[in-house]
Amino acid sequence: MSWQIRWIAKPIVFLACLIPALHLGLGALNALYGWNIGDVSLGADPVKHMLHTCGRWTLNFLMITLCMTPLRDLTRAVIWLRFRRMFGLFAFFYVLLHFSVYLFLDQDGRFSALWQDIVKRPYITIGMLGLLLLLPLAVTSTARAQRRLGRDWTRLHRLIYVVALLGVWHFWWQVKKDIREPLLYACGLSILLGYRLWKLGGSRARLSASRLAATDAT
Amino acid sequence: MPRKSSDSAKIAPSAITPYDKYLSRRSLLAGGLGWAAAQSIGGFPRDAFAQQSPGALAYTRNAGFSVNDTPTSYKDITTYNNYYEFGTDKSDPSQNAQKFRTQPWNLTVGGEAEVKGTFTLEDILKPHALEERVYRLRCVEAWSMVVPWIGFPLGDLLKRFKPTSKAKFVEFKTLYDPKQMPGERTGVLEWPYVEGLRIDEAMHPLSLMTVGLYGKLLPNQNGAPLRLIVPWKYGFKGIKAIVSINFVERAPRTTWAGSASNEYGFFANVNPQVDHPRWSQATERHIGANAFAPRQPTLPFNGYAAQVADLYKGLDLRKFF
Q: CATH topology for B57-312?
């Protein structure tokens, strides 16, 4: 079972996760050279399209990553957790693309403009903070880092809850008027984080019940 | 003076030329058939129009009111639209507006004017010669296009209704028809869409009542059959599918300004120095041939400062944005 996951399932999922980026890359080439390969078009404003698509996929992968634990609990199968790191790293991959499109294509690589935006525009401050918080998680995603950090690793990686909140907030604040899409992400995130709170409450209750039982026994 | 539709209602419907045929009939005239032929056009076989491309208009080019910039492609202008009545995505209007009915179309005029009533679109258009003007278009979302519009001066139309001295502002409304306009079934904005101009802005020769672009009738997604273009203001001032014009004494509550008054003002003059609270207005992404061209600087009044800055003398443009 293990080798099938490693050599078949994981490569397939990996390639599937790359599809949005490859699609954008092809669209960008079409826009740049006036080609029409595969009928892929990024529309009248390719930069904005790339920016928004990478942003959406960052949120999608954050959500997918956060789904793995609830899926394990629901299905009582640990296989889900074997994909969690890959999804988390893809969230990081897409946020790096999102940031690069913003800095190099939208702002023409002007770091001064980036800094002004970070200082002046709250939604960009928040988005930037989310990206920076995701950085240590990506760096410590290796098995070695996990072993070395031990229990601290789990604590550190709870930052993903904060990152996801910042990401949805960033999206919410930048839409002009139609908040339906960010609202959808906010609902999804509420369910995923709510589930964890509920589980926490449950384990606390179980813990105190077992303590009670222990004191009874003495 | 426009005829009221109560008059035109007496005419048999068959005798009324739909507005698109009416406008292309002129192009037939321009094609050299002459007035006599036009008089008898009712008896013309349909294929008399077939030689022209559909919706082709007769117009003269107004070079004095045109910029020299290369126009954005027809495809981009007609597939990248903000028209929330048909959806909030830029591609929604071109997909959802195809079955929109622009005939018959009426315009209701009211308020502080001597001539009021409901007029057919054909009566509205009849006295005006069409001209092409290549204008810059700057969206409040910090992107821009260059569009060859076809229309006639708004002021010429408004004068026909003889506004009184109390007419300080002009209010425009878009059609409210949730059956045809799916966006109006959502609460994303207040419907119908309302826009307005100060009377001197409305009378300014740059303000254009628009019926076409690229030499053809306006596609539905661009605001057919009748829309406003005010090139020195952000694009949302250019109200589409207009069904009513009201002369009023006070500034009307306009849709975007009413929905978020800290973000959108009544004037909405293009101003690189007054940022939207959430993004900069100093530069714009130009929708043109080079998709990856760097952003270009936004000009005060969208490049029309020489013509319109006088309208706002003494007005604090930071406060009245």
A: Sulfite Oxidase; Chain A, domain 2 (3.90.420)
Query: Which tokens belong to B94?
Result: 């071109």
Q: What is the amino acid identity at position A63?
A: M
* pLDDT for res B1: 52
**Burial, B69: exposed, middle or buried (Cβ in 10 Å; 0-12, 13-18, 19+)?**
middle
Residue A127 at interface with chain B, using a CB cutoff of 8 Å: no
Taking only the tens place, the pLDDT of each residue in B68-91 is: 999 999 999 999 999 999 999 999
A180: which chain B residues are within 8 Å (Cβ-Cβ)? 188
Q: How many CB atoms lie within 10 A of CB B22?
A: 15
Q: Does A31 touch chain B (CB under 8 A)?
A: yes
| Omega before residue B225 within 30° of 0, cis | yes
- Amino acid type, B316: D
Closest to A113 (Cα-Cα) out of B248, B275, B35, B76? B275
Report the b/e string of B96-135 with b at 16+ CB within 10 A.
bbeebebeebebebebbbeebbbbbbbbbbeeeebbbbbb
CB atoms within 10 A of CB B61: 14
Cα–Cα distances (Å) from A157 to A125, A146, A166, A197, A204, in that order, read 21, 10, 15, 16, 21
The single-letter code of the amino acid at A3 is W
Q: Where are the beta strands (DSSP E) in chain A?
A: none
Q: Which two tokens stand for residue A176?
A: 């002009």
Strand order in the sheet with B117-120: B117-120, B106-111, B242-248, B169-174, B194-198
ipTM of this predicted structure: 0.86
**What gap in Å lies between CA A6 and CA A19, rounded to an integer?**
20
Average pLDDT over residues B310-317: 94
Task: Quote the radius of gyration of chain B (alpha carbons, Å).
Answer: 20
Contacts of A211 (CB under 8 A, 6+ apart): none
Helices A10-33 and A46-75: crossing angle, nearest 10°? Answer: 170
Locate A32 and state its tokens: 């740049």
Q: Quick check: B278 and A123 CB within 8 A?
A: yes
Per residue in B18-35, pLDDT (tens digit) is 777 767 665 544 443 333
For chain B, domain boundaries: 57-312
Whether the CB of A176 is below 8 Å from some CB of chain B: the reply is yes
Cβ–Cβ < 8 Å for B262, B278: no
What pLDDT does residue A5 have?
A: 87
Burial of residue B301, with CB atoms counted within 10 A of its CB: 0-12 exposed, 13-18 middle, 19 or more buried = buried
Q: Taking CB atoms and an 8 Å cutoff, what residues of chain A touch B287? A: 44-45
B18, B123 contact by CB (below 8 A): no
pTM above 0.90, yes or no: no
Residues of A in contact with B90 (CB under 8 A): 43-45
The distance from CA A187 to its chain's CA centroid, rounded to whole angstroms, is: 16
Please identify which residue in the block is written with the tokens 């078949």: A8
Q: Is the pLDDT of residue A71 over 70?
A: yes
Tokens of A5: 């996951």
- Residue B204 pLDDT more than 50? yes
Residue A162, min C-alpha distance to chain B (Å): 22
